[in-house]
Design goal:
single chain; 433 residues; alpha+beta; 8-stranded mixed sheet; binds glutamic acid; binds magnesium ion
């Protein structure tokens, strides 16, 4: 039996999923007419405060749920969950400036216009599931302890048409990871959004509290979101791999990467945007700390992933690069939109990525870093927001007012934390994401 209620959802600027429910029997009607939505909702921060809003109490919008995203999930304890992901439009049907899903669609379209190519994307999510027996990273014992949860999660994800590529007991305390298979970019972001919600709901139904918070304490490893990208022709030929080229990167792949690395400080305001995110993006947390491309380096902002396929064709299809400076405080739509926007700038400007670093660059001195054009990522949310505010090239890829609205939103989030110490901040994010 399906759930009696279904929710039309949006992944908003705070990276949380909000929306409105309706009787499941009204689905056809809601697909045809949409559901009303309020502009100032964009400024509800992850802590439920309302940041400065250009809309006030004025205006009306429409949530249009996409039937392709219908999730009807069976959860543990006979519970059900049904939802769809939506685009938000003005009353006349124009995409709304703060709709993260519409923004991603727009950046994907621009990428295709500029490059003639398409993108495939994979999201890897790390999260923590406290409350079970204490186990160790990567052990069979840890995997077994999580088996009831993992099986319940697999069942629930099936109801959203999502089939994970892998589930593992990650290294950190109570830490797990789910990897999704490569999909066209919009579908990948839809699945990433649904995955987080279904994981949380499965845990809640089992009396557990899952958290995707980027960092739950100062001395713990973080929960990263790693975003894998590859480039394809519209007729399905892989074009990321160029075996003879520098780091085996094709011209468009190298340009795409160079665009992201050039705009990385601003990009990070959209991919790792919480007050604890920058504390994860430091050396030796296996995340990303500098604006470098690395060959098989798990601390590079962008890592060239290894090849295991033996034949040339298999290698070309497998070859991809991984962006590591992202986390689950970001909406998957906005995070991916920032990467695609910056990558498109790289292609438009014909940039070329510097050769991949091969060493632990945190050991380099100031001079060596400067010589190689390497710099640390911004060390705080305000510094990330300043970088986005100063990057008019990246801003120009978004709806005109979005950057200011987003910066006001995130500033509101930061201000809410101003009287809190670090322990209180970690606790807040832990229970929010
Ligand atoms: N937990 C690390 C992060 O914060 C990633 C570890 C890994 O390489 O999977 O990104
Ligand atoms: Mg991992």
């Amino acid at each position: 039996m399906a759930a009696a209620l279904t929710m039309a959802c949006t992944s908003d600027l705070s990276g949380l999923v909000r929306g409105k429910g309706f009787a499941s029997s009204d689905l056809e009607k809601k697909l045809a007419n949409g559901i009303g939505w309020t502009p100032t909702n964009a400024q509800i921060t992850c802590f439920d405060t309302i940041a400065e809003s250009p809309y006030g109490a004025l205006g009306d919008l429409v949530l249009h749920p996409d039937p392709e995203t219908l999730a009807q999930c069976s959860l543990p304890e006979e519970r059900k969950m049904a939802f769809l992901l939506s685009d938000i439009t003005e009353l006349d049907g124009t995409p709304w400036e703060c709709c993260t899903r519409s923004i991603l669609k727009r950046t994907i379209n621009r990428f295709t216009e500029v490059s003639g190519l398409e993108l495939r994307t994979t999201f890897e999510h790390e999260f923590m599931l406290p409350g079970g027996p204490e186990t160790r990273g990567f052990t069979l014992q840890g995997f077994n302890a999580a088996q009831p949860f993992a099986e319940a999660l697999l069942t629930a994800l099936g109801g959203a048409g999502i089939a994970p590529d892998s589930f593992l007991r990650e290294y950190g305390p109570d830490q797990y990871e789910v990897t999704l298979p490569p999909k066209p970019a919009l579908r990948a972001a839809d699945e990433a959004t649904a995955l987080r919600e279904i994981t949380r709901a499965t845990a809640t139904a089992m009396g557990l509290a899952a958290t995707f918070s980027p960092l739950i304490g100062p001395d713990v490893v973080g929960n990263g979101v790693h975003i894998h990208i590859s480039l394809w022709t519209p007729d399905g030929k892989p074009v990321t791999h160029a075996p003879q080229a520098q780091d085996m990167l094709s011209e468009p792949a190298s340009a795409f990467i160079a665009g992201i690395l050039r705009h990385l400080n601003a990009v990070s305001a959209l991919t790792a945007p919480s007050a604890v995110s920058a504390l994860r993006l430091v050396p030796h947390k296996w995340s990303a700390a500098y604006n470098n491309l690395g060959a098989q380096d798990r601390e590079a902002a962008i890592r060239i992933c290894p090849l295991s396929a033996k034949e040339a064709d298999g290698q070309a299809r497998q070859f991809n690069f991984e962006f590591r400076a992202a986390d689950a405080a970001a909406s998957p739509y906005l995070a991916l939109a920032a990467l695609v926007a910056a990558g498109t700038i790289g292609i438009e400007e014909g940039l070329r990525a510097a050769p991949a670093t091969q060493e632990d660059i945190s050991l380099f001195g100031e001079d060596e870093l400067a010589e190689r054009g390497l710099r640390r990522l911004p060390d705080s949310l305000p510094a990330q927001l300043d970088a986005f505010g100063a990057d008019s090239t990246l801003q120009s890829q978004f709806p005109e007012r979005l950057p200011d609205i987003y910066i006001a939103h995130k500033t509101g989030e930061w201000v809410h934390l101003s009287d809190m110490n670090d322990a209180e901040r970690f606790a807040k994010y832990r229970s929010t994401y």
